[in-house]
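Protein 1 of 2
SEQ + STRUCT:
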Amino acid sequence: MTAVFALATSLLWGLADFGGGLLTRRTSALTVVVVSQSIATVVLGAIVGATGAWSEAGPQLWFAVAAGLAGPVAMLAFYKALALGPMGVVSPLGSLGVAVPVAVGLVLGERPGLLQFAGIAVAVVGVALAGGPQFKGAPVQRQAVLLTLLSAFGFGAVMALIAEASTTLTGLFLALFVQRVTNVVAGGTALYVAVRRGTETPPKVAPTALPALAFVGLADVAANGTYALAAQNGPVTVAAVLASLYPVVTALAARGFLSERLRGVQAAGAGLALVGTVLLATG
């Protein structure tokens, strides 16, 4: 089940990143973050009310608050990077944040088997190569790389924190709700300050964009949920690496919908990522 939930996380995050990157090319990244997360918060609030998840409230929700503070920073940096650079390059670099939850798992005493260690190594190398790393080039590319590395650390922190925020399914609903409320408060405050300072225009969202924003917000929150379930059902080291394969999904979506061409090294990296996935799932 760990592999199933973690791979579902990759699929959901990959599609959410693709949608968020497209939206950010037409709308402010901060607006995309705030609006998409607001929609997710409303849906989660309804689920929490219907399931009575409030009974699961406890000190562990502070992990959800911390994840909610890290999330907007990571998403803002990532969406800006996606808008600047090719999705097939930016997205794989963002997955380097997997080092954070993997390190936490190792510190807590997890010791994957030899085959799983091999899978981790192969998958991480594959994800890195899938980006066809372009650390040289135009200033825009360098800025995209720096923003992506910032987002990677933030995403890794969110993965580590949300895995500790609940132990039950209803508790997970509440933790995700608290995380999203924090996201909206933090992101909304940043948007308000930016508008007051004149660095952002007042947010304007076309009604036709709402379905896409809803998809991005709900896919992102669902991915957080499936990752938490993956981490609860098996080693965090395995769950984190499998969940980090989402850049392959983003790159393939960009190839299919935007005709972004994959270089040879990117195709090879995607293949290695899949080999690593098989090793992790069977180890």
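Protein 2 of 2
SEQ + STRUCT:
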Amino acid sequence: MRIGRLTLSFLSIFVLLAPQGVSAAEKLPALGADPARISISGLSSGAFMAVQYDVAFSASTIGVGVVAGGPYNCVYVNLGGIYTCMQGAPVGQSSYQAAVGFAGLGQIDPVNHIAGQKIYLFSGTQDTTVRQSVMDAVHDFYRAANVPASSIQYVKGTAAGHAFISDDFGNGCAITQAPFVNECTVAGALYDQPAAILTQIYGPLKPKAASLSSSPIAFDQAQFAGALSGMAPSGYLYVPKSCQQSAAKCAVHVVFHGCLQSADAVGDAVYGKLGYNEWADSNGIIILYPQVDKSSIPFNPQGCWDWWGYSGLNFQTKGGAQLSAVHAMVQQLVSQ
């Protein structure tokens, strides 16, 4: 979402340790999930984060959904930094060359893995927060990474504001305001974005569950994320009843919220109402909802995922504070 006049000053990047806060009671379970079926998606700063995760851990990721985000390492390869990466016309090829460089240093997975992924892209025509020119650069990035055009679905003709799109919850289509979930009609029917993302990545889905077999749970993020990560004390997890036994070998999909959209800001709008859980329930998919809250230390006043460096200058690599924490969560779900 909007991040205001944030700067890349070293003062806002190298900060003092913050208090840990109160942790959730439950620890993230080991569920024996399928390591060959890991995917991610996100909105806005969460979409930038989804791209970063996808690129950094491309060897273990099969697809990504990007809703109103930007290309990899955008602020460091484009003049104008944050402004260009939200309102301007960043260059996708430059982001790809940055990924090649990080891969050459061993800081991210080899970029050849990206070519085999399934990509979903969405940009609303009424989104004035992250312009379509920025999402065009995400498309160009994946094409530069040799993802075939047939493996990319780019939805860009819907009159949507800056938001996730749900088929039964949210604001009017063109609105940009909390909880940043909208309802939009496409071809005479309400558009179901979670279904579109999961279908693009995993293929045809079974009909979504009419009622859930389980409920989202809060879990303690502190075992994965240090104080400098800026991550919230608690994250959320949806585990279908069918996935609560490791023999099920369920898929894992990570959903990154946007700025001003953590559970602390909008309650269960994302982890409970957006619509991923219903599709996950009937299709054997575990949904992980990691969380970042707004904070003054590190300086993150709108609760955004780090795509410009407030948690450290290695934010876009496997060693980044947030990327490494979320990857460790995924590894925990995959473990027995």
